[in-house]
Amino acid sequence: MIIEMNDVVCRFGVLAALDHLSLTVEKGEVVCIIGPSGSGKSTLLRCLNALEDIQEGSIEIEGLRLDRQHKDIHKIRLDVGMVFQQFNLFPHLNALDNVNLAQIVVRGRTRYEATVISKELLGKVGLTDKIDSYPSQLSGGQKQRVAIARALAMNPKVMLFDEATSALDPEMIGEVLEVMKQLAREGMTMLVVTHEIGFAREVAHRILFLENGRIVEEGPPQELLTSPKNQRTREFLAKVL
Amino acid sequence: MTWLVDQFTILGNVFYYLIQTVHWTILISVLAYLIALIFGLVFGILRLSLSRPVRWLASAYVNVIRGVPLLVLIFFIYFGLGKIVNLDRFVAGVLAVGICYGAYLAEIFRSGIQAIDYGQHEAAMSLGMTRWQTMRHIILPQSVRIVVPPAANEFIACLKDSSLVSIIGLRELTRAGREYSSQYFLDFQTWLVVGIIYLILTLTLTQLVKVIERRVAVHGYGVEKK
């Protein structure tokens, strides 16, 4: 297995955003996480990238323990790519340099090597003609696709998507989901926090329903979406479907 | 009529005398400002350090220096420290102004760094960058845009405050004004001209700051004025 979360507790003050949560994800698996706001979906992803401290339990990525205090945490983090709701592109760099920078600085690639990889990835997400554009000149959908290319450039073993389409205009959601579907088809291990139930139905191998920092119910899309066992899952799905 | 001509001749003479010392004012302010930039950048970043003692040390510098009048600082360095190490009045003057303005710049740099959205740190860290790499490649290049206008304005203030070093006998513009007025008893004309020369310098700099502001504002930053 590629991700193993064991009895993880992540607290913000008295609130337990993750409450003794355990989860294992196999290589190549696509796991979609749904649930009401405040249920801990984002926190779950952020813990997997060591952006939040955990107070109890352990997280292992490919057998390496994730510890925020570890001095080489930035290296362990390399295996985990993250795509944010707010894109978080670097506004002072154009699309190409957004994808290039970490490859050069962190992976130690030459500018030439990095550029070859970046161009290929930007082509893959359909942005060959936007290579020189600055983030301020891109639409939301284009920004998010650059962000995906940027994360992929580090050759992550897992990709985390934190509501990657929630900040987008409706007509731009499709182009980003399409890129994500393609990634899933290629066998990338993905954890996707999403409100796009249609996407989850189509792509996910497994869906988790989270509430109050716990996994209330999990199962393959057909099962969980059509005949949820838990009362809370039923209520939630009745509202969003 | 002749009175008016006489007056302008006097002003012309004063101006001619004083303008020969203006390069000292410029030199002192530029050198002091360079020192201030280094101090400001170092202490501005240190104030955001993860280590508590380092943070404490950096804010101690800022708070102590900002809380002491520059004139007192000049006396302390020239006469006080001068007792221990032999300090030239030029070195002492430049150092005092530089250290003083370093504290102001540190605050400007700190706020410029903190003004960058935390999402930028998270994005950089999620790509495996260390804290320093994040600072160097992501945060500082963006902070520059925010920091340049107020930091450039500090240079104007620094130039004006360089007049204080006249007190330890550094012969810059203000000192020359004192010499001239006490020699010829032309106080009104002398200080009028001294003021005008400072005004010419600061107004020129203000225009320069506007140009620089426009320069750094372009470069595909954010959505603001393009």
Automatic annotation (TrEMBL), chain B:
Protein name: Amino acid ABC transporter permease
Transmembrane stretches, start-end: 24-48, 60-81, 87-106, 184-205
Family: Belongs to the binding-protein-dependent transport system permease family. HisMQ subfamily.
Signal peptide residue numbers: none
Location (main, coarse): membrane
Domain ABC transmembrane type-1, chain residue ranges per copy: 22-209
Domain of life: Bacteria
Localization (cell): Cell membrane
Mode of membrane association: Multi-pass membrane protein
Record has Transport as a keyword: yes
GO cellular component, as recorded: ATP-binding cassette (ABC) transporter complex
GO biological process, one term: amino acid transport
Keywords attached to this entry: Amino-acid transport, Cell membrane, Membrane, Transmembrane, Transmembrane helix, Transport
Entry-linked Pfam families: BPD_transp_1 (PF00528)
Coiled-coil stretches noted in the UniProt entry, renumbered to this chain: none
UniProt keyword Transport, yes or no: yes
Organism: candidate division GN15 bacterium
Record SUPFAM superfamilies: MetI-like
Molecular function as annotated in GO: transmembrane transporter activity
